[in-house]
Design brief:
The protein is of the alpha/beta class. Helix content is about 45%, strand content about 20%. The strands form 5 sheets. It has a 6-stranded mixed sheet with strand order 5-6-16-11-12-15, sandwiched between helices. It has a 4-stranded parallel sheet with strand order 9-8-7-10, sandwiched between helices. The termini are far apart.
């Protein structure tokens, strides 16, 4: 398949380039004192990712510890309710150990840290799923773990905060600014700049300076590889459409990577939140422009001074003012269509999937479910495969407090 002269048959081998660019997006815009640290991580990753021992160990961990492969479920009752004949399916990352896709790259990053002789792993978290996954990986490998999390998200995600602490992680509260995901990333980077000799920063999505967008995508690609094989085995054909939510974009990039060279429509779903006004949403690819933050060039939401704009989403894992550089590139190529779903549509999908299918989705994943339902009503025939990136246990207290039981 070819889009704007990009051959997707060899795409994953050619992108990013050696400097970490997907077209004009990506790169490594960091302080000089961290350049050597990034090079150390890059060199270690390129060595270890080709190692039979590393690959064998990661496969063993996925099978024996994570419970992979995760299954695909046919949403028969939901499909019947929509009534157009379109069949909905979900890739069940909620059944991955710790309840979301995040462990896929956290175990890989922690294994890399062990290979490099590091003693500590540092990270940020929004919804808490990345924090829980990294705390789990740290406990598994016997590493220290510091997780930076904004005050707003700590209050919204109390169950995940408790899980991180039980697993032995230090949860570092971030109180400045809006006290959400962007500020947590700021604080984690600042901590890493002081501790990089003994620690590794395990970023929670396909963003940040090179090599993180590439590494996280590679570790998450297991989602798309499994899903493609499972869907063909289940139905005898490819899905007509693939859907996943996009904040930073790790679950979606993992899912999309399995289908980029197939005749399949791919949709990335951003959070419209309360509406299109700046500060009411976090739909950077839909409303943003090119800009640099947190060490990488991508499409971001900017305020009147050209700085990262304040953002909002009902989903803590999606309230970030930019998206991974590979998403920006796929957006410009037109290979992936990026669209939006608002809070109300998201919460409706949360309750609908729970009641009809016995699956309580994460609020982040509910954006993708809502869009899949919307797409099914428009398509008239065919099939839609949705990445159910995580389970909703972490969100129940917040949902009940804010929306009640519908």
């Amino acid at each position: 398949m070819n889009f704007n002269n990009v051959d997707f048959d060899t795409y994953l081998k050619n992108y990013p380039d050696k400097n970490g660019y997907f077209g004009k997006y990506g790169g490594c815009f960091i302080a000089p004192e961290l350049q050597d640290a990034m090079k150390e991580i890059t060199d270690a990753y390129f060595t270890i990712c080709k190692s039979r021992k590393f690959i064998s160990e990661l496969r063993r961990i996925r099978k024996e510890f994570q419970g992979r492969p995760t299954p695909i479920s046919h949403l028969e009752r939901l499909s019947d309710k929509i009534g157009t004949g379109v069949q909905l399916y979900v890739k069940r990352e909620d059944l991955n150990h710790t309840g979301a896709h995040k462990l896929n790259h956290c175990m890989g990053e922690a294994l890399l840290a062990k290979y490099m002789g590091k003693k500590k792993i540092i990270a940020e978290t929004g919804a808490g799923q990345h924090g829980v996954a990294l705390a789990t990986a740290a406990a598994y490998f016997g590493l220290e773990c510091d997780i930076y999390m904004g005050t707003v998200d700590i209050q919204k995600q109390a169950p995940n905060v408790a899980r991180m602490k039980i697993l032995g992680a230090n949860v570092r509260e971030v109180t400045h600014g809006l006290a959400t995901l962007k500020e947590a990333v700021d604080a984690a980077f600042d901590a890493y700049s002081k501790e990089y000799k003994d620690a590794i920063y395990c970023i929670g999505s396909v963003l940040g300076p090179h090599p993180f967008p590439m590494m996280v995508r590679d570790f998450q690609s297991v989602v798309g590889i499994e899903a493609r094989e499972q869907f063909i085995e289940m139905t005898g054909e490819l899905p007509d459409a693939v859907v996943a939510c996009v904040g930073g974009g790790s679950n979606s990039m993992g899912m999309f990577s399995g289908f980029l060279n197939d005749p399949v429509d791919i949709y990335g779903v951003e959070p419209l939140g309360r509406g299109p006004s700046l500060g009411d949403h976090a739909a950077s690819l839909t409303y943003g422009e090119e800009g640099i933050m947190h060490g990488f060039n991508s499409i971001m939401l900017k305020d009147e001074n050209g700085e990262p704009a304040p953002v909002y989403s009902v989903a803590s894992g999606l309230d970030y003012p930019s998206s991974g550089p590979e998403h920006a590139y796929l957006h410009d190529l037109g290979r992936v269509k990026y669209d939006v779903i608002n809070d109300e549509e998201t919460i409706d999908a949360f309750f609908t999937l729970s009641r009809l299918e016995g699956i309580i989705p994460a609020i982040e994943s509910s954006h993708a479910v809502a869009y899949g339902m919307k797409l099914a009503k428009e398509m008239g025939k065919g099939s839609v495969l949705i990445c159910l990136s995580g389970r909703g246990d972490k969100d129940m207290d917040y949902i009940i407090e804010k929306y009640g039981i519908r």
